[in-house]
Write a structure and sequence with these properties.
8 helices, mainly alpha, about 75% helix
Length: about 220
């Protein structure tokens, strides 16, 4: 009945709290050791941030409930840990975006025909370009937050993503032009005319896309 359900819930909470209290004792030395290390951590580059955060995550991953266990430790540098996690997550996001715009990467799944592949390129650009623009708008605010915690951020990653947009435009243009060049100019058949028309449309799309990518990356060379 209801009484049994309440009893089970209380027992469950009780065994959960026992585990939390036991872990506060078991990992007390580790946590007290981490506190000053995190508070005083002042890295000079992203490699140090990633390596340090990975190690902090490894240790905190040992806890059954990080938030509850750490509640028992006064002066835990929660804001600094949150900042480290955010910086690493943003760094990884930008790196993923850069590789997501690289047709040479192993993760790139090319479509079987030129028109579909051009659509694929445009979709990939649309999916991430707004995020890059967000980083550019929020750069000052984010930098202020991170530097307040003595954490640097590799803003060069944003530049690399913007540059990879130009490579994406080049890939699109080259792909369409090569496909158009393979058509036999002497073939006046209906099927070839249809393909020629489709590729001419694709070429216009690729030109517009190339112009947009160059603007996105900061103008023409």
């Amino acid at each position: 009945g209801v009484g049994d359900a309440v009893k089970k819930e209380l027992e469950g909470k009780s065994s959960y709290m026992k585990q939390v209290l036991a872990e506060r004792e078991t990992y007390a030395t580790m946590i007290e050791d981490l506190k000053p290390q995190i508070a005083n951590f002042a890295p000079s580059d992203m490699q140090q941030v990633v390596a340090f955060t990975t190690e902090v995550e490894r240790r905190l991953g040992l806890l059954c409930d990080e938030r509850m266990v750490l509640k028992g430790f006064e002066g835990w540098p929660e804001k600094k840990v949150e900042c480290l996690r955010e910086v690493v997550a943003r760094y990884n996001e930008l790196r993923r975006m850069k590789s997501g715009w690289d047709p040479q990467s192993a993760a790139w799944k090319a479509k079987t025909n030129v028109v579909a592949e051009l659509e694929n390129v445009l979709e990939k650009f649309e999916a991430s370009s707004a995020t890059v623009e967000w980083y550019l708008r929020e750069k000052e605010t984010l930098n202020k937050q991170y530097l307040a915690q003595k954490i640097p951020f590799d803003w060069h990653q944003v530049t690399l993503v913007k540059e990879s947009a130009v490579a994406l435009a080049r890939y699109s243009m080259q792909m369409v032009l090569e496909a158009y060049g393979r058509l036999d100019p002497t073939d006046v058949g209906k099927q070839t005319a249809t393909v020629r028309g489709q590729l001419q449309c694709a070429m216009q799309t690729a030109f517009k896309f190339a112009f947009r990518c160059h603007q996105f990356a900061g103008g023409f060379d």
